[in-house]
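W.,

You were right to be curious about this one. When I first looked at the sequence I had no strong expectations either way, so I just let the prediction run and decided to look at it fresh. Below is the sequence, 301 residues in total, followed by the output.
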Amino acid sequence: MQTIRAFLPMSERQACKLAEVAVSSYRYRSRTAGRDDALRDRLRQLAQQYPRFGSPRLYVLLRRETRYNHKLVERHYRELGLALRRKKRKRLVRVRVPFPPVERANQEWAMDFVSDAVASGRHVRILTVVDVFTRECLALETDTSMGSLRVVRVLDRIIAERGAPQRIRSDNGPEFTSRAYLAWSLERRIELVHIRPGKPIENAYVESFNGHLREECLNASWFRNLFDARRQIETWRDHYNTVRPHSSLGYRTPEEFAALRAADRSSAGAREGASNAGPFPHTPIPAKTGIEIQESCRMLE
């Protein structure tokens, strides 16, 4: 309208009529301007604190503080340019290997190793142990070197806290195929599942966890020494189990999901016990005395 009025001497109403635009539309000013500044600031803070979290996971964290609409959060997320940039890579077509069904905690654990380095350049190895059903990270053991005996000690420590698993899935590394490890599994009566060489997809749960560990902890942290690495990695493990929402668990934390399923199993067991008891309680029949037995015989005669 300003351009029209700059060339033609006319009023604002006449310029709107010439451009076929309603005067109310031209004069409209948004009333929501500045209302979502707090949301944008908080969204930016969370994105800086968790740089590898996407829009759905940041939305779950915001909902814990204040009720926001997911479409509003997604719109501001895109306007702020917080979308994660991922490199597209070519994927080979692989034959999918069916996994055995996992229906409860401690039915299957998955293990693997992750490597990193501290400030001095010294390499460290991290043993990751994950419960396949609840997605809980059971252990992140960090050291400069780790043999099969150390792996056995870590597993014994976890078993002392939550019980033994039915099977353990891992690759064919020397730590997982040594005589000490095999003898330990036979003694504990734990089934060992070794994936085929060159097929990490057969241990997909721990590979996915290792990716999150790499992106959210190892790549985002700087370790001064081995002790600092142990402290920061253990802090992240606690955050992963108790705070971080997990998309495959309905955006619950692994700890919340484990507690929920434990409550469901206990309630189902109580209902099964009540159904087996029958509609009437069992009451013992009192034994008859000798006089009552003689009276019954006379009545039959």
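Here's what jumped out at me. The chain is about 45% helix and 10% strand. And, maybe more interesting for your project: Residues 1-30 form one domain.

Coffee later to discuss?

I.
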